């Protein structure tokens, strides 16, 4: 073999190796709280002020460069249940965690505390001498006493234990490097030759090139405003969340208090077993776009209702899944408006009962990542309050949703990948829940995109 062909072969091997390494490199860069936090266990007998966070993972795939999809009839998106929301057995846990020091930092301003625990695998614990065991139990008891002493109703010192379900331990699948590693061509051309027609300040090329990821039927007339271009949930993720939240419920009524241009609401409405999606937004133009987008997807008119109001206000009208009050003036009524015969109006259109709530609040624009890779909390979310000129944060909204639904009814909360699970766990406790909080990593084409918190059942 000549030197030239040897060199060529070496170059080819090198580029093949690089190709194989690329996904691993990318994963290394993406170390958010959810990736870095370790499993932990609650000290025994700490019942008060404790919550388990169970980390799961869904791996989804799409090909946003593809030829536009054809209009489909309204189809049931099926029983895409999270396959294994099962905590690890102690054996699996032992294999994973061994002796580990767990440092879960919560970001609660001046209250910021590190919850430091020593955990031991059961196997190691059984091998310990009696003295060591006594010493360990003494220190555990001291920790428990310390927690009990400092525990307040605001749960700032609550123990939040972290466990990973089997799905979260599965390696990230990389089925098609050409999709995962695809970078848009200049001017947002995603390979189909169509360049970004918008002002790049309004719609950056990155979002234009991903338009068919947001809505597979984008080319059939989907309408988005500036904010929605960066905040709509990609359809593959939206469909997965819908199936998970609705589960086996028949004739489900879903409340979506931050409907925006309708990505998630349409996904819920596509499900046959969903009876009604109640879409709320404070921006009437967004609601009209959502209704128009629902038409593109062929959603029957009776399956979606569009309500011009704000999230906190609408939640305050429900208690234990039932509508309890409705101000008589109905001042938010939007002139019996309608788009393509979908009903658009005010709070007079609220149904008497709801089953589940899906919360996808604004995260603070594209700057949500600036707080760092593990410091996003519900307090970072700011939305309009119930009263005029007042403000609520994400935790207030969660508390409002929990009250609106009552005991253990299901809420899904759509969050950024830099959410801190310990701080979120404390918010969930403050909202009155004590069941495990499921934090699902939404991995799309091998990349962690978003996190969905499922609370209640
Ligand atoms: P992204 O910031 O574009 O992350 O948001 P990505 O694609 O990982 O970009 P990179 O630059 O980090 O590589 C990812 C997804 O989060 C979007 O597709 C939206 O679905 C969702 N999202 C983003 N924002 C800013 C919001 C928001 O404010 N509210 C809601 N509900 N969802 C958002």
List the helices and strands and how they pair.
Blueprint (H helix, E strand, L loop, with lengths): L2 H27 L3 H4 L13 E11 L29 H8 L2 E6 L8 E6 L2 H5 L3 H21 L8 E6 L1 H4 L7 H4 L24 H5 L1 H4 L11 H6 L3 H12 L5 E5 L6 H7 L4 E8 L2 H13 L7 E5 L2 H6 L1 E2 L2 E2 L14 E2 L2 E4 L10 E4 L22 E3 L6 E3 H12 L5 E6 L4 H10 L6 E8 L2 E9 L2
Parallel strand pairs: 1-4, 1-16, 5-6, 5-12, 6-7, 7-11, 12-15
Antiparallel strand pairs: 2-3, 8-9, 10-11, 13-14, 15-17, 16-17
Helix pairs in contact: 11-12
The structure holds 7-methyl-guanosine-5'-triphosphate.
Poorly predicted ranges (pLDDT <50, ≥5 residues)? 6-21, 79-129, 143-152
Helix fraction?
25-40%
Shape: globular
The largest β sheet comes out as: 11 strands, mixed
Structure description:
The longest helix is centred in the first third of the chain and has 27 residues, at 3-29. With 457 residues, the chain is an alpha/beta fold. Helix content is 32%, strand content 20%. The chain has 16 helices and 17 strands. Strand 16 and strand 17 (447-455) form a beta hairpin. The protein has an 11-stranded mixed sheet with strand order 4-1-16-17-15-12-5-6-7-11-10, sandwiched between helices. Strands 2-3 form a two-stranded antiparallel ribbon. It has helices at 3-29, 33-36, 90-97, 122-126, 130-150, 166-169, 177-180, 205-209, 211-214, 226-231, 235-246, 263-269, 284-296, 311-316, 394-405, 421-430, and strands at 50-60, 100-105, 114-119, 159-164, 252-256, 274-281, 304-308, 318-319, 322-323, 338-339, 342-345, 356-359, 382-384, 391-393, 411-416, 437-444, 447-455. It starts with a helix and ends with a strand. 7-methyl-guanosine-5'-triphosphate (MGP) binds next to helix 10 and strand 17.
């Amino acid at each position: 073999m000549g030197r030239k062909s040897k060199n060529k072969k070496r170059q080819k091997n090198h580029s093949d190796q690089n190709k194989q390494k690329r996904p691993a490199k990318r994963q290394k860069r993406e170390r958010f709280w959810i990736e870095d936090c370790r499993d932990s266990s609650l000290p025994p007998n700490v019942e008060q002020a404790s919550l388990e966070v169970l980390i799961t993972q869904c791996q989804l795939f799409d090909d946003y460069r593809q030829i536009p999809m054809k209009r489909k009839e309204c189809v049931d998106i099926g029983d895409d249940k999270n396959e294994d929301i099962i905590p690890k057995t102690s054996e699996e846990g032992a294999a994973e965690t061994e002796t580990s020091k767990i440092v879960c930092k919560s970001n609660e301003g001046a209250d910021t505390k590190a919850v430091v625990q020593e955990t031991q695998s059961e196997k190691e614990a059984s091998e310990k001498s009696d003295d060591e065991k006594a010493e360990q139990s003494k220190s555990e008891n001291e920790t428990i006493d310390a927690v009990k002493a400092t525990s307040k109703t605001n749960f700032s010192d609550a123990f939040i234990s972290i466990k990973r379900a089997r799905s979260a331990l599965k390696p990230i699948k990389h089925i098609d490097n050409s999709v995962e590693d695809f970078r848009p061509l200049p001017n947002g051309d995603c390979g189909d030759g169509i360049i970004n027609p918008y002002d790049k300040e309004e719609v950056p090329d990155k979002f234009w090139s991903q338009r068919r990821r947001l809505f597979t039927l984008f080319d059939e007339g989907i309408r988005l405003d500036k904010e929605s271009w960066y905040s709509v949930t990609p359809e593959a993720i939206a469909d997965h969340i819908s199936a998970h939240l609705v589960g086996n419920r028949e004739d489900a009524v879903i409340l979506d208090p931050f409907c925006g241009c309708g990505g998630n609401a349409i996904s819920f409405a596509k499900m046959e077993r969903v009876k009604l999606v109640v879409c709320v937004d404070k921006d009437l133009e967004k609601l009209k776009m959502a209704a128009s987008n629902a038409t593109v997807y062929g959603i029957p008119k009776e399956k979606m209702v569009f309500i011009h109001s704000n999230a906190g206000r609408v939640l305050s009208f429900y208690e234990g899944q039932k509508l309890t009050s409705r101000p008589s003036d109905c001042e938010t009524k939007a002139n019996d408006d309608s788009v393509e015969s979908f009903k658009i109006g005010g709070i007079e259109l609220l149904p008497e009962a709801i089953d589940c709530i899906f919360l996808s609040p604004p995260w603070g624009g594209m700057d949500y990542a600036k707080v760092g890779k593990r410091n996003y909390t519900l307090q970072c979310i700011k939305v309009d309050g119930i009263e005029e000129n007042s403000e609520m944060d994400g935790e207030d909204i969660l508390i409002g949703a929990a009250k609106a639904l009552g005991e253990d009814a299901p809420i899904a909360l759509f969050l950024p990948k830099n959410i801190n699970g310990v701080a979120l766990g404390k918010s969930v406790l403050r909202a009155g829940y004590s069941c495990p909080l499921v934090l699902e990593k939404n991995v799309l084409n091998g990349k962690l995109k978003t996190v969905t918190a499922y609370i209640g059942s």
